[in-house]
Design goal:
It is a single chain. 24% of the residues lie in helices and 24% in strands. The chain is α/β, with parallel strands linked by helices. The chain has a 7-stranded mixed β-sheet, with helices on one face. A 7-stranded mixed β-sheet has the order 22-28-27-24-25-26-23. A 6-stranded mixed β-sheet has the order 7-2-1-11-20-19. The longest helix is centred in the middle third of the chain and has 27 residues. The two termini are 32 Å apart. It binds flavin-adenine dinucleotide and 2-acetamido-2-deoxy-beta-D-glucopyranose. The site of flavin-adenine dinucleotide has 30 residues, from helix 1, strand 2 and strand 8. The site of 2-acetamido-2-deoxy-beta-D-glucopyranose (NAG) has 2 residues, from loops.
Length: 561
């Protein structure tokens, strides 16, 4: 066995986040990429969804991300022909619509290459660097480990790497999935194609995300041309050309694309410079039938395209616990069990979005342009993109105590069907849900305040203990005694008191503005509220005492008694 227990194949966002998560949990992995260079010019992904910002926050990346990110530009569509008169101006996410429990609801724009650079810089602090020009070509595995064959693409060298686990983060076209023999089911929109690229444009303002293409205008093709300013005040734009029954395969050519844009938008005044990146895609919506085979796992685009997420940390913490021998290998089976329904629902949601934004376009022509709900335009009011609703309520390793919290009437299949849909407005919070943020937490009687996401540590389970009244204080001793019996470094506790009066002279946080008690639905008259937040930011358990908490952890850790 090499000195590394994990090999990560692919250094895109999924592989890098995996490596960082593991590093923070004390596991140093080896990460390779066949590409000799870091991704630089390709803008590819740029939209960071609210939920992803939360994950980046718990991983300590948010300050760097915020310093480099820009707000999502307001969108503006123009009348055709002419291409100059605005017909509609709107925001992807309603601006300023943030709540104490969802502080990043506006999302952000950041070039994927910049995000990757930020993650690499953080990884370097843990002594992890990406090995480039290393291509995975073969995988063999047995009950003890995995042997991966890697070729050095520049020198022609070859290496066999022996590890306990392999994570394939090698993107939609990577070999891991194929080497495992997993299926990649879904659909490719054969009649449609898209062109994306980055180019400098003279004569176009950077204040809007410009869109041309009145639905139906191009008869049956419903073409749409988009120009998104990459940095406010600068001339560089991310170009997108999409359409229904429109396949611009011949356009992945600079001269033709430039002419096409000027012609079709009617903006012959625009001067387009050199493309720093130009590419043709087919819309793809596919997923694997399972996310693992033996000791090999797949994450990111290797497991599912076209998803708006890209980043997920369901696997990393489980691998860390298993490698440290704190949890049985069977915990790893819950990666597929938890994620598969989410990704299946996500694909349904993204294809609905695709249909809604592109295919349904003709219908929109008949409605008032101001009627956002009915229009086929890009207002993704669908909460799917925000991903707050992703939940694992059907998971075999979560535990909700007390029927008033759970939804006992729903059978497993129904819960799975709602894995992505969310429970917004239903006023429930169960194990399996996203742990909400809560600002205004004051430690003891100190000045200043913290927010929950600033406290929780992605390298461990975070046990939130809510003390609604003085009677509950007596329970604390028993909880502390239970927690010290858990494997070292796997759990930490935070105690939240309803008010200063309850806190007395004790150690803990006062929920100054009541956000934490409200978001976690802790009632004034409950015995005590205990919420176990998993390292990935999902709620593992919602319980009313030490017995429930113990029951949850017995399903996670090896049980000796
Ligand atoms: C035009 C476009 C726009 C997009 N916009 C958005 C957006 O706004 N928001 C969003 O969230 N997502 C967006 N996406 C999707 C996003 O880019 C992907 O989801 C993301 O890149 C997936 O990350 P990944 O790490 O799984 O894979 P990738 O980023 O594809 O990385 C895989 C890596 O594996 C390496 N690799 C492949 N094979 C091997 C091998 N055999 N050995 C070693 N290394 C290998 C590759 O070189 C590559 O570096 C967009 C995608 C495109 C194409
Ligand atoms: C709470 O903390 C935030 C972030 O540090 C700060 O901006 C805010 O002013 C603080 N509020 C109070 C009342 O201390």
């Amino acid at each position: 066995m090499s000195k590394f227990s994990i090999l990560i194949v692919g250094a895109g966002p999924a592989g890098l986040i995996m490596a960082l998560f593991l590093a923070k949990s004390g596991i140093k992995s080896r990460i390779i990429d066949k590409d000799p260079n870091f991704h630089t010019v390709r803008s590819r992904g740029f939209g960071i969804q609210p939920r992803t910002l939360e994950l980046l926050q718990t991983l300590g990346l948010l300050p760097d991300v915020q310093a480099a990110a820009t707000p999502i530009p307001t969108m503006r569509a123009y009348k055709l022909p002419g291409g100059m008169d605005p017909v509609k101006t709107w925001d992807l996410y309603e601006k300023g619509r943030v709540w104490p429990d969802r502080p990043h609801a506006n999302g952000a724009c950041l070039q994927q290459s910049t995000l990757e650079e930020i993650i690499r810089a953080h990884l370097a602090r843990y002594g992890v660097t990406v090995e480039r020009s290393r291509e995975l070509v073969e995988i063999k595995q047995d009950s003890d480990g995995v042997t991966a064959t890697i070729i050095y693409t520049q020198t022609g060298g070859k290496e066999e790497v022996r590890v306990e686990y392999l994570v394939g983060a090698d993107g939609a076209r990577g070999p891991t999935r194929k080497l495992l023999g997993l299926t990649f089911e879904g659909e490719t929109k054969d009649t449609d194609g898209m062109v994306w690229g980055d180019v400098e444009i003279e004569g176009l303002g950077s204040d809007y995300w410009h869109i041309w293409g009145k639905p139906g205008h191009f008869t049956r093709t419903h073409l749409r041309i988009m120009a998104r300013p990459i940095t406010p005040g600068e001339k560089k734009f991310g170009i997108g050309i999409t359409g229904l029954n429109f396949d611009p395969i011949e356009l992945a050519d600079e001269t033709k694309t430039k002419a096409f844009i000027r012609e079709q938008t009617g903006r012959t005044d625009l001067e387009l410079g050199q493309f720093s990146w130009l590419s043709y895609f087919k819309p793809n919506m596919r997923m694997v039938n399972k996310f693992a085979e033996g000791r090999v796992f797949i994450v990111g685009d290797a497991a599912h395209v076209h998803s708006p997420t890209g980043i997920d940390s369901n696997l990393a913490w489980k691998l860390a616990l298993v490698l440290k021998r704190h949890a049985p290998p069977s915990l790893l089976e819950t990666y597929t069990a938890e994620r598969l329904p989410v990704v299946a629902q996500m694909l349904l949601a993204t294809s609905a979005l695709y249909t809604h934004t592109i295919a349904k376009a003709p219908k929109a022509e008949k409605t008032e342009p101001e009627n956002e709900k009915a229009s086929g335009w890009f207002r993704w009011r669908n909460t799917a993109l925000e991903m707050y609703g992703i939940n694992y309520r059907y998971s075999p390793i979560i535990f909700t105590e007390g029927v008033d919290r759970a939804e006992p009437t729903l059978i497993l299949e129904e819960l799975r069907a709602r894995a992505y849909e969310g429970y917004e407005g239903s006023g429930t919070l169960c194990a399996g849900d996203r742990a909400p943020e809560a600002p205004g937490l004051v430690l003891n009687s100190e000045a200043g305040n913290k927010s929950l996401f600033g406290l929780i540590n992605p390298a461990m389970h975070n046990i939130l203990i809510f003390i609604p009244h003085k009677k509950a204080i007596a329970t604390l001793e028993g909880i502390a005694a239970a927690v010290v019996a858990y494997p070292p470094g796997t759990a930490q506790t935070f105690i939240f008191f309803k008010d200063h009066e309850t806190l007395g002279g004790r150690n803990g946080f006062v929920d100054r503005d009541g956000h934490a008690f409200a978001a976690y639905l802790v009632k004034d008259d409950c015995r005590i509220g205990i919420v176990v937040v998993r390292p990935d930011g999902f709620i593992g358990a919602v319980v009313g005492g030490v017995e429930g908490m113990d029951r949850y952890f017995r399903t996670i850790f090896w049980h000796t008694n």
